[in-house]
Write a structure and sequence with these properties.
Blueprint (H helix, E strand, L loop, with lengths): L1 H16 L14 E2 L5 E3 L4 H23 L2 H10 L11 H17 L3 H17 L8 H6 L12 H19 L3 H16 L14 H12 L2 H12 L36 H18 L2 H17 L31 H18 L2 H15 L17 E2 L13 H9 L8 E3 L3 E4 L5 E7 L2 E9 L6 E7 L3 E9 L7 E5 L2 E2 L3 E3 L2 E9 L3 E6 L3 E4 L11 E6 L2 E6 L17 E7 L6 E8 L2 E7 L11 E2 L2 E2 L4
Parallel strand pairs: 5-9
Antiparallel strand pairs: 1-4, 2-6, 3-21, 4-5, 6-7, 7-8, 8-14, 9-13, 10-11, 10-14, 12-13, 15-16, 16-17, 16-22, 17-20, 17-21, 18-19, 19-20
Helix pairs in contact: 2-4, 3-5, 4-5, 4-7, 4-15, 7-8, 7-9, 9-10, 9-11, 10-11, 11-12, 11-13, 13-14
The structure holds beta-L-arabinofuranose and zinc ion (ZN).
Zinc ion binds next to α13 and α15.
Length: about 625
């Protein structure tokens, strides 16, 4: 991979020099994702979730932001320059994240009423912006003289979420009012910080990846440079809480080492994920091998030693983050929903660099399990913490004082179309399996892809190609790591594909109406953890396809604590239309006892009760 990136970096230099010195950099990532705006999802599993996002989740978020909490009032007060700030100092970020979700929803389902709501909020943000471009309702209402003092106070974190929302809304509607607010704030930050100005380490990463989006949207390379400068400020030992005099723990903030030297995951989980996304995004334009090498080392440390079977990360509530390698408690697992979404965002980027399916495998694991558990089936309640075991007292809530997870889910779900396909000079990449129609450009050729599947319940996938004329190209289909046997055919003719880095490569001259069919065997698997995970010694989890399963007391009412699984348990798998929105439920037979398993994402949607992913083994 090193060689590949060096070659790409060289290619980029050649491209740039041939542009007569134009300042824009080329994106060096070999794979470009197909944007969700070019994908229409029509899927038995995902469409109901997207519908409940549109019909329920958005309304819940808007109600919380406008009526149940003071979040929108903070902007109104900041605009007037009077009144109190209510809530937490980074509450502005929830409003921006909800707006980002509203923008994506408008892309999928145009809605003038929702768009008017967005415009109304944007007017309030614009009115709350200071003359010099600064915007943050906490400092505006508590004393602007204290701004840019305490690196933990999330001023750049909020700005980053505003930029993501501004870019999203501009891309969907073409309206640039919020984008202009973002540009003024970014320019303001660059008058205060930067080379030959003040040092700064954003206590919560986010601005870095957002600045790259601002660069991509405006073409202004100064934003990319500023993102890189901020990343390179880390690890020089000057992190600070400013006037408060408290001591900053550099490990918690990923400020203990320069980013190129990082090898071990540590500190706060969501912060780490956003940092790695920012590093990936900057490296995509700079080709910085030091960033890429660090990200690879960190990936091994996260995935091989610190990740739950659900794709969740961040074991401990004490730092909302990491502890020791292989320390993966189940009952006390923190696994913040935002951290699972962060895993999707980071692994998606790593896949685009490498074309290696191992990243898409983790992306899928975190998506279907850790992240999806973060929202109730109705779309009205959210988990912040996602343990792998519960004594019956852990439940989703309509909102939280710290509402990063509800607003995260709000922006994440309507954009899941982003994660399905990619395009490179080799051809098309298929990463996720869900029913959809996508309009894709392969080189200069317009191609329509239609995917039909009943995934994740069944392993059959049909991918139909629509195009004018013909096209010699590759279609690279991810063979999920969980799948041990599969068949592939094109137009009903069996194909024995070459498999490269986990992708079955079908290289041929495609014509209109060609159909690729995949059939993934999806047996139930009884899975053991790495023996170094003490908590899971003598226990087993159950997985089928991409889904991790759990037992819940609602189904297993008798002697829940006494339930045991066996390596050689036999399973029945059946689709149950009326249960939990429609699931493939599993029945495990262990001796004369029966265990009923449901997908982990669906737990806590019925009467309260105990839950377990890792079930003790029956003694022989
Ligand atoms: O600090 C902002 C967000 O709130 C973090 O990402 C979450 O972990 C929660 O602490
Ligand atoms: Zn969160």
């Amino acid at each position: 991979m090193k060689q590949l990136l060096r070659f790409l970096a060289l290619a980029a230099v050649l491209v740039l020099s041939s542009c007569g010195g134009k300042k824009e950099s080329a994106n060096l990532k070999p794979i470009t994702p197909v944007k969700f705006s070019d994908v229409v999802i029509q899927d038995g599993f995902w469409t109901p979730r997207l519908d409940s996002h549109k019909d329920v989740t958005l309304a819940v978020c808007i109600d919380q932001i406008e009526n149940q909490t003071g979040r929108i009032r903070n902007f109104e007060n900041a605009a007037k320059g009077e009144g109190k700030h209510s809530g937490i100092f980074f509450d502005d970020s929830d409003v921006y994240k909800a707006l980002e979700g509203m923008a994506y929803s408008l892309q999928n389902h145009p809605d003038p009423v929702l768009e008017a709501k967005c415009d109304e909020w944007i007017d309030k943000f614009a009115a709350a912006q200071q003359e010099d471009g600064y915007i943050n309702t906490f400092y505006t209402l508590t004393g602007l003289e204290n701004r840019w003092d305490n690196m933990d106070k999330h001023e750049m974190y909020c700005a980053g979420h505003m930029i993501e929302a501004g870019v999203a809304y501009y891309n969907v509607t073409g309206k640039r009012k919020l984008l202009d607010v973002c540009i003024r704030m970014a320019d303001h930050m660059m008058t205060v910080f930067g080379p030959d100005k003040r040092h700064w380490v954003p206590g919560h990463e986010e601005i870095e990846l957002a600045l790259v989006k601002l660069y991509e949207t405006t073409g202004e390379k100064k934003y990319l440079d500023f993102a890189e400068w901020l990343l390179d400020q880390r690890g020089h030992g000057y992190g600070s809480f400013g006037k408060s005099g408290k001591k900053w723990n550099p490990i918690y903030y990923q400020d203990d080492k320069p980013v190129r030297e990082m090898s071990e995951i540590a500190g706060h989980a969501v912060r780490a994920m956003y940092l790695y996304c920012g590093m990936s995004d900057v490296a995509a334009y700079t080709g910085d091998q030091g960033y890429i090498d660090a990200l690879n080392r960190l990936w091994d440390d996260v995935v091989l030693r610190n990740m739950y079977i659900t794709g969740g990360i961040g074991q401990s509530k004490h730092n909302e983050g990491f502890t020791e390698d292989y320390d993966l408690p189940n009952l006390e697992a923190y696994c913040e929903t935002c951290a699972s979404v962060g895993m999707v965002l980071w692994n998606w980027r790593m896949n685009q660099f490498t074309g290696d399916s191992k990243y898409a495998d983790v992306m899928e694991r975190s998506l279907y399990n850790g992240a999806l558990a973060g929202i109730s089936l109705k779309g009205d309640k959210f988990f912040y913490v996602n343990p792998l075991e519960s004594l019956g007292n852990h439940h989703r809530q309509a909102w939280y004082g710290c509402a990063c997870c509800p607003s995260q889910i709000c922006r994440f779900l309507p954009s899941i179309g982003n994660y399905i396909y990619g395009v490179s000079k080799e051809g098309l990449w298929v990463n996720l399996y869900m029913g959809n129609t996508a309009n894709v450009k392969v080189g200069r050729k317009a191609v329509t892809l239609t995917q039909e599947t009943n995934y994740p319940w069944e392993g059959a996938v049909a991918l139909k190609v629509g195009l004018k004329g013909s096209l010699q190209t590759q279609i690279r289909l991810r063979i999920p790591a969980w799948c041990k046997n599969y068949t592939l055919s094109v137009n009903k003719e069996p194909v024995q594909p070459i498999v490269e880095k986990g992708y079955a490569v079908v290289d041929r001259k495609w014509t209109d109406g060609d159909v690729v069919e995949l059939n993934f065997d999806m047996p139930v698997e009884v899975v053991a953890a790495d023996p170094r995970v003490k908590e899971d010694v003598g226990k087993r989890a159950v997985q089928r396809g991409p889904l991790v399963y759990c037992i819940e007391e609602a189904d297993n009412t008798e002697d829940f604590d006494g339930l045991r699984i066996a390596e050689n348990a036999t399973f029945d798998a059946a689709f149950e239309r009326e249960k939990l929105g429609g699931i493939v439920g599993l029945t495990a037979h262990v001796g004369d006892r029966v265990l009923t398993y449901i997908p982990y994402y669906a737990w806590d949607n019925r009467e309260p009760g105990k839950m377990k992913v890792w079930v003790p083994l029956k003694e022989e």
